[in-house]
Amino acid sequence: MNGMSQVSYAFVVFISAIFTQNILLSYFLGLCPFIGVSREVKTSFGLGMAVIFVMTTTSMLNWLAYHFVLEPLGLHFFRFIMFIIIIAAFVQFVEMVIDRFSPTLYQRLGVFLPLITVNCAILGASLFMVIRDYSFVVTVGYGLGSGIGWFLAIIAMAGIRQRLCNPHIPRGLQGPGITLIIAGLMALAFIGFTGVLQ
Fold this sequence. Notes:
Blueprint: H1 3-18, H2 31-37, H3 41-73, H4 79-101, H5 103-109, H6 120-131, H7 136-163, H8 176-191
């Protein structure tokens, strides 16, 4: 593929990762922080921005580590360990930056900020990048698109949950039950974009 076709393919992958192949609503990766943090829009916005940054950057770092360290040495089977180490180190860096520059957001995110390390959506993006044999440019588009897709999903969920009137929801469905039903309906809405680029 030449440079221009790489960029156009990266753009298609980017749009697809946001809507039709949304890592949260199509693959249901990253549900724990999605359900736990999506009670307030402000907190969801902060976590969503952190996930965009971490997912994009770690996808690039993991691509470089895989293609320039693991592949030449024939150590493909170490990719899980390598990816997790890179993600954990980078999330630790992001956590320190947020604590330094926005202590209020750091307090609001609480335990969910370090949980980005074990957010399976972050690791999933890196593994999809390897499985699908994306080039570096396409990996950047995929990582950014997946992060934005996750961000849009959590912001939409937080907006809906803030407006929910709990007394009208049956007791058995309150909390995680209604959240999962809404997530399923959102997934159907996002999948409705399938075929737009064809």
